[in-house]
Write a structure and sequence with these properties.
The protein has helices spanning 3-10, 13-31, 33-39, 49-77, 90-115, 119-145. The protein has 151 residues and is mainly alpha-helical.
């Protein structure tokens, strides 16, 4: 077994999940160059935990801006009406986006509560979750904008 796998097995479950999340995010960042630059902005040492959370929140704002750009591009690619399949219309993408935003908010709040021990850690886990989910959704919307789906 390689050393990384052995090291992961020695961690408690919370630390193991966090390490795996960071590892997955790192791989995702390598596959998404534009987002990778932004994700590295909060990898430095901070004087306190609050500063780190503030950096992550600012990064999330930048990622949210990229998400909105990808959403607008995807929306522009969808027809207003599709005579054969209404699921391909702009309104369906709007519904999907609204539902996803609510899911992200509620799911990341739950994850923050489950993973964090105190309010500062809860905030950090929520912010990290929002970042991960936003990056994934941005990639999905870019696929729509670039007509990368078969149908």
């Amino acid at each position: 077994m390689n050393q990384l796998a052995i090291n992961l097995l020695t961690l408690n479950s919370r630390s193991r999940r966090l390490c795996i999340s960071v590892l997955c995010l790192s791989v995702l960042c390598l596959l998404t160059p534009k987002l990778a630059v932004a994700a590295g902005e909060c990898d430095k040492n901070f004087p306190d935990h609050i500063s780190e959370v503030q950096c992550i929140n600012q990064l999330n704002k930048k990622l949210d801006d990229e998400l909105n750009q990808a959403y607008q591009a995807a929306l522009a690619k969808r027809p207003e009406k599709d005579a054969w399949d209404s699921r391909k219309e702009r309104e369906q993408l709007r519904k999907s986006q609204r539902a996803w935003l609510k899911l992200r908010e509620e799911n990341c709040t739950l994850i923050g509560g489950l993973e964090g021990g105190n309010n500062l850690w809860v905030s950090q886990f929520i912010s990290q979750c929002v970042q991960d989910e936003t990056i994934a959704r941005t990639k999905f919307l870019r696929r729509i904008a670039n007509d990368e789906f078969g149908g």
